[in-house]
Amino acid sequence: MDRRKAKRRIAQILEQLRARYPTVKVPLHHRNPLELLVATILSAQCTDATVNRITPALFARYRTARDYAFASPAELEALIRPTGFYRQKARAIINACRALMERFEGEVPRTMEELLTLDGVGRKTANVILSSARLEGWTGWDPSAEDGLGIVVDTHVRRVARRLGLTQNANPEKIERDLMALIPREEWPSFPLRLIYLGRELCRARNPLCHLCPLQTLCPSAPRRGASL
After folding, report:
1. Is there a contact between 111 and 148 (Cβ–Cβ < 8 Å)?
2. Backbone φ/ψ region at 220: left (φ over 0), alpha (ψ -120 to 50), beta
3. What is the pLDDT of residue 191?
4. pLDDT (tens digit, 9 = 90+) per residue, 100-126?
């Protein structure tokens, strides 16, 4: 496919996704950057639904980075146990919040480089936070190219992007680079959320509903019921 056709196809994919999902928001419930940081750490190898079920009690108990930094590990573990790997996650949350207290005045940092210095934070978590800052217009955050924003890659983004032929890679960082080269920068915060919505609703891992998908005519995997190239 030549460059013009590829660009037109990307534009059509984006148009269809925007029409299907005009409003997007990170599925993890949160009221501020700290809550989203904690929720995203908890979401590793766990469903958003489970995280959202346990965070109301968690966020009522711990309200600031200081609260988490000086939390009893046993008490924190008990609250987050349903999310799995609770000991490792409790340790990551406590260590990350200690770093917030020691190096960032108790606030969640606002650049990719700084976020990646926190325990339990990889590119996916950092991108979730930076994307939400842009989508939700967080007070005091000044989104710019310098914040290091990329594209969130989770299991749904990986699957749908591969089925659409937007990448042939399996490694999340390579997939992210492929998508960043194709998707206009202004779409980076919202594009992966729309893929996640599509992956949950129609482009399922098993038995994808290709016949109902708005991207059916643009997807090289649709004739094979979701089997990637």
Report:
1. yes
2. alpha
3. 98
4. 999 999 999 999 999 999 999 999 999
The pLDDT tens digits for 33-91 are 999 999 999 999 999 999 999 999 999 999 999 999 999 999 999 999 999 999 999 99
Rounded CA separation 143/40 (Å):
20
What's the pLDDT score for residue 140? 86
Point out the catalytic residue in the list 48, 124, 147, 178: 124
Whole-angstrom distance, CA of residue 137 vs CA of residue 116: 22
User: Do residues 119 and 161 lie in contact, with contact meaning Cβ atoms separated by under 8 Å?
Assistant: no
142 is catalytic: no
pLDDT of residue 227: 64
Residue 217 is classified by DSSP as G
- Sign of the Cα torsion 104, 110, 115, 119 reads positive
The CATH topology of domain 33-147 is Endonuclease III; domain 1 (1.10.340)
**Catalytic member of 7, 48, 89, 154:** 154
Domain ranges of the chain: 3-23+151-224, 33-147
Token digits for 227? 């089997």
CATH number of 3-23+151-224: 1.10.1670.10
d(CA 134, CA 43): 21
**Phi–psi pair at 221, nearest 5 degrees:** -90, -15
**Is there a catalytic annotation at residue 67?**
no
